[in-house]
Fold:
Amino acid sequence: MNIKTLGALAALALLAACANKPAETSANTGTGVTTNAPSGPVGGTQEDLVANVGDRVFYEFNKSTLSDEAQATLNKQAAWLAKYPNVTIQLAGNCDERGTEEYNLALGNRRANAARDFLVAKGVSAARIATISYGKDRPVALGSNEQAWAQNRNAITAVK
Structure:
């Protein structure tokens, strides 16, 4: 019986040792040099755009004109798109819940087009940019207050 208990304890110790093996964070390149594995999002992806540039610009109530802050974000997007010339995007114009469906679809279209026109003026090929309006159908923030409405008045850039 002592041998069975000793065997069981040895098996548990072995399993515990395997379960606590630290994850490797470096890669051997085969040249005798060990390099750190890359961290963060892969360049040219949606995750990279969101993390390093920003994927959305915001608008004032019933407006489609670009604020200074929106232009700064779009300038960064234009530079990012220049760095990744094979990336195509879709700009989705969105509105808050107020107004009719027809009005908000038209306003969302103007917002998406304003962002597209800015990027094209900065040298991004129009062929790389699709636009769509969701009007008030895809809110990012729920609620019927100014804070939620401000978040929903946007144009969101998505990598295609």
About this structure: The first helix runs from residue 2 to 19. The domain at 50-159 is CATH 3.30.1330.60 (60s Ribosomal Protein L30; Chain: A;). Confidence is low (pLDDT under 50) at residues 20-26.
